[in-house]
Each structure stands twice: as C-alpha cells, then as structure tokens.
Amino acid sequence: MTPAARAQAAIEILDLVIASAREDGPPADALVSGYFKTRRYAGSKDRRAVRELVFRAIRHSAEVPASGRAALLPLAAELFNGSPHGPAPRQTGEAEAAAGIVPDWLGPVLSPLVSQAEWPALVERAPLDLRANLARTSREAMAAHFSGEPTPLSPWGLRLSPDSAVTGDQAFADGLVEVQDEGSQLIALACEPAAGKLMVDLCAGAGGKALALAAAAPGARIVACDTSRQRLSKLRPRAERAGAAIESRLLDQPREAETLTDLEGQADVVLVDAPCSGSGTWRRNPEGRWRLTPERLERLLALQARVLDLAAPLVKPGGLLVYAVCSLLQREGEAQAEAFLSRHSAGFGEDTGMTFGRSDGVGRLLTPGHDRTDGFFLARFRAR
C-alpha cells in the first residue's frame, strides 16, 4: 500500500470508530482487526502503519470528530493529494478535528489533583505491564526472561515497552505471567490477600484481579462474581492456565443479593472494582473520551452506589470492603466513597493503610502523570 492508500484505510476505520463510539459499539482495536480480516492484500507493515495513523488521530482529538477525514486531516494533510487509492484532495475551507486531551464537559469534573500539566500523560501510549504469577515463579525470573524492569510500586510487576509481544511467549502460555497494569496490581495488593481468607470479587469481569489475588494467596477462597456470562466465561481458561482455584458465580440482575445470601457476613474482603467511565485508561483506550456522555456518567454513578450497597452486607466484622474505579472523575472517586460512608457510617469506618498514589479524600488516587500507572481511585473501608 502507498502512504496515501494507508491514509484512506485509516479514514475508513476512523469512520467506523466514530460511529461505534456514538452507538456504544465495539472498541477501536476490534474494528482495526475486523477491517483487515477482509483485506488480505495488506501486509504486516501496512497494518501497523494504518493502525498507527488511526490511533494517532484518536489521541489527537478530545471531542468526537465529524468524520474520519476530519480526524486525519490535521495529522496527514500532505496525503490528501488525489493519489490513486488515496483520499480525495482537501477542499477549501474543509473542517478538521481540533486538538484536545480532555473533553470540555469533563475538565471541570476531573479530580482537582489532576492538573492540566498532567493532562498530556492521559493519552500517551502506555507501557506493557506484566504481573508475575508468584504461585509458580518469581518476578526476578520473569524479569530476566522478558528483559523487563521491575515496576516501582507493585512487588509483582514488570514493565516492558508498549510494542512488546507477550501472548505468544511460552511463559505466558504456561501461566507464569499475566498482562496487567501496575495500578490494577495495586488494587489486588490493597485487598491484603492471604491464605485462608474468603475474598469476593464482586465485579470480576474476565477475572484479572481475582487471578492476582489467587497468585498472591494460594489456599484462599476466591469467589469471582459478575452479571455478564460472556465476561465471566473468560475467567475459566485464564484460571486454568495460571493454576488458580477460583469459584465463579453469575449474578442475576436485579436479584444479585439472592445469589449472595450464603456469603452474608462471611467475607474477609469484598472487592468492588466497579463499572466506571474508564477515564483512567484513556492512554490504552483513547476513544473512551468519545463514548462517555453526561447521561452515561449518571447511570454509572447510580450503579456504583448500588453495587457498594450490595457489597456491604457480605463483609464480616473486621473485614475489608475495597472500592476501586479506573476513573479520574471526582464524582466516581472521592465523592462516591464519601457517600458510601455517609450511608453506612454505623457499619464501616475509613481504613487508611495505603501509601501509594496521592491522598484523595477517604481514598488514594493513582494517575499516569504522577505514578506512571493507569488512573485509579481506591478506598478501603473496615467493617465494625
């Protein structure tokens, strides 16, 4: 493919990404892969080059562009030259997408800790972090195997360059490592995993944090729950690869409490890694800025509060309720945690045993610019 033909392919994919963002459809990565499945003529260099153009354009614009052409114009105007298989020439006065990092409506609701000086880090390419499965290997052995650097905060983590290929490696196939951002590892660490504990991951998804808990605490009982059968089904093969014993439990909305009655007052730890805006993961999913709307944020806030209230009865006296969101929005973090304490002040108190990140109300905040992790808010509550 010529450079102009690559630009045209990027425009076509960007049109798909823009439509998907508006309709809450598949993510950009999936759309890029699907596009090339039907275009076998594109070689590996072409695919990499087009993908780079697509994601450069996504990272460039905070607001949803009018079209793929508008998204790519400010980055590759020289390729809009009418070459065969390339974009049509630029028209006089044709609009192009404006540069930006944070959508206008979201700037005022970010945590006050995230200054504008930190904003560029929110959309920079993230490194590839691994978690060594300490139930089967050591971090030192995996650091030597992958030529990785130990992460500064997590005792389980390794940091590789963004383009590192891991999933085809034998160590990955043998369950010795998992791909997991250091911030996610710290959430599992904050749960104080230990053998003999009952730990409930109430919003487990595909089980990344449940796997981290299992690796850190062989012999613990871990119950991974979710309302999505599709997400939860991804846990079993991952657990088998890692040699982890994890129970999975599908929750039936809106009757989740009925499926959890046997765990009431029994759990040493309940982790609520709640559905959220994903604003802390824009460097991995930059089109997430295009997907979030005020209406969707309101729905997420209500869901977070509901899941926290669902979790509270499960924690035994002296146990921990750990609340986490991969968000940098104050309403999802500090404000949500404060609201939980106000509703449950008789049953829970603030637990301040964490030292990483920065203090943010009753919790801690990790950010890409300050901590070189994905953005996370994390709070712990101790049951009375």
Overview of the molecule:
- Strand 11 and strand 12 (363-366) form a beta hairpin.
- The chain is 36% helix and 17% strand.
- It has helices at residues 3-23, 28-37, 44-60, 68-76, 139-146, 170-173, 182-190, 208-216, 229-233, 235-242, 256-259, 288-291, 294-311, 334-343, 368-371; strands at residues 128-132, 149-150, 157-160, 177-179, 198-201, 221-226, 247-250, 267-273, 315-325, 348-351, 358-360, 363-366, 376-383.
- It folds into three domains: 3-100; 128-180, Alpha-Beta Plaits; 182-383, 3-Layer(aba) Sandwich (Rossmann fold), CATH 3.40.50.
- Strands 5, 6, 7, 8, 9, 10, 11, 12 and 13 form a nine-stranded mixed sheet that branches. Strands 2-3-1-4 form a four-stranded antiparallel sheet, covered by helices on one side.
- It is an alpha/beta fold.
- The protein contains 15 helices and 13 strands.
